[in-house]
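Q: Entry one of two.
A:
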Amino acid sequence: MKKSLVSAAIMAAFAVFGVSARGTWTILGQTYNVDTLYHATVGPGTVETELRIEEASGGGNVNNIFYTVTDLSDPYVEMRAAKAGNHMRMLETVPDIAERMTKPGESYFAGVNADFFNMGEPYNSIGMCVADGFLTNYETDGADIDPYYIIFDADGVPALVRHIDRSWTGNVIFHDGDSYPLLVNTQRGEDELLLYTPQWQFYNWWEDVMYEVGHTGTNQYGVEVRLRPVDKNVLYGSSLSLEVIGDPEEGVGNMAVPSDGYVLSAHGAARDYIRALKKGDIVVASVDFSADGKKTSVRELLGGFPRMLANGQILSTPAYPGHLSNPEPRTAVGYNSDKSLLYMLVVDGRKAGGSSGVTQQQLAWIMRNIGCSDAMNFDGGGSSTMYVNGFGVKNVPSSSSLDQRPEGQPRTVVNALFAVAVAPVDNVVARIEMRDKKVELRTGETFRPVVYAYNQYGVMISTDLAGCSFEIPSQLAEVKGNDIIASEGSFSGMLTATYNGLVHSVPVNVNGGGEFVTAGIADPAVADESDPEYYRLDGVRAAAPQRGAITVVRRGSDVVKELNY
């Protein structure tokens, strides 16, 4: 019988997301040694992984990679775009956006910077941006990059597209069935009906006056009313039901827009429609939207450049801009072939954190290696930022002469993409997970485990849970309070953390490992069947591997111990 020690089990530790703890990648013909430095659940349906890849030839090319994988089928997580300052003319760091946007029941727990942008006023994104249903930016006219886009439709399904077409005129159907042409976030003209969002900020070029953000900026020659979405906030390519939440106001102008709603503003012939509205009335607004020639709904939309992967095929690098062929810090987004997993990734560069940086082609290979079939480049360089709630900025943003930041401090950016926990507030611990997924110790060395805690929805509620107890076979180590002190000899076994009946185990090697030590279990009997059989570490037969736990797997005469995620 072939026995596999815990080191082999760790090789399978990250099989769900296609990454082993140690292994090799081939990127543009060059072999890289890949070491997994960190892997943990950070929110509902979402894990974060940190890799260090190094040229096997010893050429000195080393890169630190940070990425999240989100299971889009998880009912308690959504992918959302977010605009800096929640309006058109502002920059903000990724962690500051997350902090500002987070509220009870909505935690912006993991995110990366997104679109390229103009670093001088008005801080416009290169591509159009739709954030949580609200149009926050138009595409920059005359930009030297023709952006690609990632969109999420009304059901949260992602797609990478080349061309988008948003109708400049939409439509509003009133409660009596009448309809009227609609414009969104622009200066109101004669006989026009406008829908204003909280991100709108009107600048009067003739008077050189900038109106306060979130106000219509209109004059007194009209009538306005506040509304709020009834259900999903999807205006573009869909029908958005809006409930009237205030009385119409006439002869005033410059109405404040609700932070979670809209203002409908009318002049001239359109005024009678607004005058007739009362609280509780429902109107239905829509604006046609198509992506690559196909009509679609869009709740989130972010630009980037270029697309790197399409149906698993790596695309050629455009000649412009030239930095795409240089090793630089990079940010990317992608998804797998059935669009069930969403990936956000950052590679450090410019020697920040000791990382060399990658070209756009190398980035494409990395995205394919972690499991993407389709991927797009976001803004990189000094903008590249990976944020995780509870830990802050995970990567080391590079310094820049453009904004005089020191190394490690995140740059203010125009927008970002986040995984958002959408779950009831709940601080009861329902699952635990140790931070370190493998532990290597020498005789006398002390290790203090760190335990993460999660509620029933997968939201992380503690990054260092107190009150845990720990067990480990005495041949490996001694438990003294919260410390694990390695014994003599070479052994491999399991360290188990327990909290209020919740259990999590990780493998431990002492002095390089050796005989696998697990109290109370013998190897399963050898069988000739080719179908796998699964056993818990206490010897009890299981129907399938348990997620997040060591499972003994027997396939014929081959018996291995595997850690499954």
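Q: Entry two of two.
A:
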Amino acid sequence: MLSLFQGIKPVKRASAIRDALAGVVFAAMDIPQALGYTRIAGMPIVTGLYALLLPLLAFAAFGSSRYLVVAADSATAAILRGQLANMAPASSTRYVALAGLVALLTAGFLLLARLLKLGFVADFLSQTVLVGFLTGVGFQVGISVLGQMLGIATDTHRTVFQLYQVCRGLPKAHLLTTLVTITVLATVFALRRFAPRIPGPLLAVVGATAASAAWNFAGHGIATIGPVIGGLPHLGFPDVHWKDVPPLASVAGSCAIMILTQSSATSRIYAGRHRQHLDADQDIVGLAAANATAAFSGTFVVNGSPTQTAMVEGVGSQSQLAQVTTAAVVALVLLFVTKPLQYLPQCVLGSLVFLVAIHMTNLRKMRQIRLESPAEFALAVTTTVVVLVVGVEEGILLAMVMSLLRIVHHSYHPRSGVLHSEADGTWQLTPPAPGAVTEPGLVLYHFGAALYYANANRFADEIVTLVGPSPTSVRWLIVDAEAITNVDYSAARVVEELKQDLASAGVIFGFARLPWNTRADFDRHHLTECIGPSLIFNRLHQTLEAYENL
């Protein structure tokens, strides 16, 4: 049953005042960042403010998380730009309409995921490839604004070529534009280091806008964003046709996967930290509602943002009432403060985007992955390279495929071996090599995964290897099935053939510690009668006793 305002109720006077003040502070911190996201997405500046209006209210009404901020986000903005850049000029009316259609399709995919209970799909994006994907997006976004920060013109959307053009154009970089960029970056970094409570991006935007108006930056060759449309967004269906849907379905699907993954991970972190009950299905409805309102209010895809969620929690928010207050502040900005934005230098927005890109390129996490798991590090690096060389959409599809392949790899190459008992009663695992035994004549073989069509032959081959070509030294071979959570039809047939082959060689074949659901699989596939109930043991020590009492 749909329940509204789960992320706000119950409302108490003291907490409402605290959350309202947090919302005002968050608005001051986040408005400059939202303007930067429009550059990543290729959208008009004002749409960044639209993304902080109705989508925030929609998630506050329909979501369950008390902390998750659902607004414009760099990852989904980059996915959007990667596809739309080839279909319409950035910031054009056509481009905005297509972005609205992507948001609407994304909302539809999210609702479908909710109806089919597909929220678990997000769990198949491993942290490893997700770090690699976001790092690739960070590099791509950072490189895309370098020309803007230095006053160097670029005419390609390919990251590698953009970097080449910027490097080639360095001798012609615009000196004043570069100085403004350096000043903004230095100011923000200094405030983060020495006065972290002061919103550096907001101060940079206000200061640069005032300086631009006073000293006519545009007249000195520093590009500004120009007039910004004021007022609240006009509501309406995106001006698109049915023929626009097929080419945008894949990018909307990629956005939906990223939203499910990133939003779910972020909301779980903060729910666990604050011991909040979380309704994941309700949050999917909230995410769908937020993207639908984004489509109808002229903005682009929104996502649960880890950085913005951390910001709102850091200023003391404990419910979605803070986001509602932020939306109210943004509405006032749209009504009364858009005119001065025309003086904002483009290099300042580029600098803010560059700061977001630095945050996304998590090199520390990449180094940690390399130290702990070189194989997973290779997967992360591969994902990063694909994002940079091929594209963002292809990168997230690769991330999904590689995560799934890693799951298959783990189940195909499970930990297996021969168990032997230590003096203190614990069991140790040794590699399944010929001659390895638990006791003279007895092999307790552990297989560490579900038994299915892909790994069943591997299971049988390892057992045959343990028994050897002339099985005189092995009388009993018992499989420790504690980790075998299910057995499919193909694997059952392999087990039957293995039973017959071992019986012909004079080896007793059985199982121990079958989970109850696997025992049901044994009964259904007639393995219980094939193996024999007397050779299916409840405990390993029961197996040892039966063998020793022969």
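A: Comment on entry two: Residues 13-406 form one domain. The chain has two domains: 13-406, 416-548.
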